[in-house]
């Protein structure tokens, strides 16, 4: 704070809180910490509702009791809902002060998920803007950085990172989706027997292999890879934090989708144009199939795939629990199935259950109620065990689904609110 006294007073709904300036600087609530960066009263009034210079008092016309519970979170690290207060109203207070739903205790997160799934929430423009800022980098760092960067760089960044932020971003996203679809079609078609026959004939007649840039399919593939590479390089150049850019999952997927092509081209240059030698190389075939990662690039442009990825990242504990629920019964039922079907019947044992690892396959398809029918018990005890295996699979697999569902709803709402903000920006651009 470059003006006022050394003690700051926060007046929230009539309740006053006094803090030293150095505490305000590193305050856990982003809205409060922004006060330390303000250089004039005009900037202060953009953060709070009113300001008294003589007493260095900042006024916030917000729910005082809700802020009291938020201060308990600042002090003790635990955030819970205010009794007799609507969960959605308290969530709006959290967003105003710079908190997310992940700061809530797990039981309160479930209550919020249930409430959000039953209601459609309309956030004000300011609240949605704050929520979007919280999803990115630290708010204070972001404000300082935006002052230093030029407007065209920020516009370029939003064009490549937010497909719905502007008309240009939508056009760019549409072109990228077209290239992804074309590359996937070419990859799928290249595995057809007729296509392979045509490639062999092309090699015999013209002397170049289908992976060569002289071949039509090679040209299409090179154009697609060129677009993906250029897009990735531009996004890397305009990114704020280069290290954070490399660590993002979608950027890692982009790298996995692009790198195999350049490796295969390098190996082609080293091994020459001998098509038969290249076809015999298992490494090249693996690299070619790794281009299937291109389809995951669609997650950058579709809300549903983003929701799925965010849900899986937040529910890794539940996924591990689900895997544990499968592995433990699988070990028990596979051992019992091998004993009942093969170990006890010495005259005509069921060869499908000759070992416990072989019986594990039957347990997996039974617990998941897939039932391919490629192996099945023939004894009465084995069939009884099979029934128990199916029933236990239904029960055990259903246990963690509720937690995953609530997390999915929460992730969907968060991404939907961010998309709504970008849509409003797009509408304003059309009006201008």
TrEMBL record:
Its domain of life?
A: Eukaryota
Q: How does it sit in the membrane?
A: Multi-pass membrane protein
Provide any one GO MF term from the record.
Answer: potassium channel regulator activity
Q: Which Gene3D superfamilies has this protein been placed in?
A: 1.10.287.70, Potassium Channel Kv1.1, Chain A, Voltage-gated potassium channels. Chain C
Q: Where are the transmembrane segments?
A: 167-192, 218-238, 250-272, 292-312, 319-340, 352-372, 384-408
Q: What is this protein called?
A: Voltage-gated potassium channel regulatory subunit KCNG3
Alphabetized, the UniProt keywords read: Cell membrane, Cytoplasm, Ion channel, Ion transport, Membrane, Potassium, Potassium channel, Potassium transport, Transmembrane, Transmembrane helix, Transport, Voltage-gated channel
Q: Which PANTHER family match?
A: POTASSIUM VOLTAGE-GATED CHANNEL SUBFAMILY G MEMBER 3 (PTHR11537:SF91), VOLTAGE-GATED POTASSIUM CHANNEL (PTHR11537)
Annotated Ion transport domain residues: 170-414
Cite the record's note on assembly: Heterotetramer with KCNB1. Does not form homomultimers.
Among the GO biological process terms of this entry, one is: action potential
Would you identify the family this protein belongs to, as annotated? Belongs to the potassium channel family. G (TC 1.A.1.2) subfamily. Kv6.3/KCNG3 sub-subfamily.
- Location of this chain's protein in the cell: Cell membrane; Cytoplasm
Locate the Potassium channel tetramerisation-type BTB domain: which residues?
9-107
């Amino acid at each position: 704070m470059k003006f006022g006294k050394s003690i700051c007073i926060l007046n929230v709904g009539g309740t006053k809180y006094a803090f030293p300036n150095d505490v305000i600087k590193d305050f856990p609530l982003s809205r409060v910490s922004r006060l330390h960066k303000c250089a004039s009263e005009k900037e202060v009034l953009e953060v709070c509702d009113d300001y008294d210079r003589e007493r260095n008092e900042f006024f916030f016309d917000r729910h005082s009791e809700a802020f009291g519970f938020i201060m308990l979170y600042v002090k003790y690290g635990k955030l819970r809902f205010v009794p007799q207060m609507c969960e959605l109203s308290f969530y709006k207070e959290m967003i105003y002060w710079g908190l997310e739903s992940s700061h809530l205790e797990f039981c309160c997160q479930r209550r919020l998920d249930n409430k959000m799934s039953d209601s459609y929430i309309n956030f004000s423009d300011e609240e949605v803007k704050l929520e979007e800022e919280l999803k990115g980098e630290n708010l204070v760092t972001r404000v300082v950085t935006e002052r230093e960067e030029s407007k065209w760089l920020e516009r370029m960044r939003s064009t490549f990172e937010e497909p719905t932020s502007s008309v240009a971003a939508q056009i760019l996203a549409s072109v990228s989706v077209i290239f992804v679809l074309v590359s996937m079609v070419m990859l799928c078609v290249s595995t057809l027997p007729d296509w392979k026959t045509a490639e062999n004939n092309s090699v015999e007649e013209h002397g170049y292999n289908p992976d060569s840039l002289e071949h039509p399919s090679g040209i299409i593939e090179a154009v697609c890879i060129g677009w993906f590479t250029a897009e990735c390089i531009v996004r890397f150049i305009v990114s704020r934090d280069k290290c954070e850019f490399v660590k993002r999952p979608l950027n890692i997927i982009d790298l996995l989708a692009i790198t195999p092509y350049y490796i295969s081209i390098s190996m082609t240059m080293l091994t020459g144009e001998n098509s038969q030698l290249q076809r015999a190389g298992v490494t090249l075939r693996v690299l070619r199939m790794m281009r299937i990662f291109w389809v995951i690039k669609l997650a950058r442009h579709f809300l549903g795939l983003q929701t799925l990825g965010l849900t899986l990242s937040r529910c890794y504990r539940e996924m591990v629990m689900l895997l544990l629920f499968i592995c433990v019964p699988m070990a028990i039922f596979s051992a019992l199935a091998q004993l009942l079907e093969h170990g006890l019947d010495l005259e005509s044992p069921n060869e499908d259950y000759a070992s416990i690892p072989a019986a594990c396959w039957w347990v997996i398809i039974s617990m998941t109620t897939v039932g391919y029918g490629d192996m099945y018990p023939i004894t009465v005890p084995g069939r009884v065990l099979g029934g128990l295996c199916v029933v236990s699979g239904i029960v055990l697999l259903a246990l963690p689904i509720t937690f995953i569902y609530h997390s999915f709803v929460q992730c969907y709402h968060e991404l939907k609110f961010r998309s709504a903000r970008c849509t409003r920006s797009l509408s304003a651009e059309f009006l201008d």
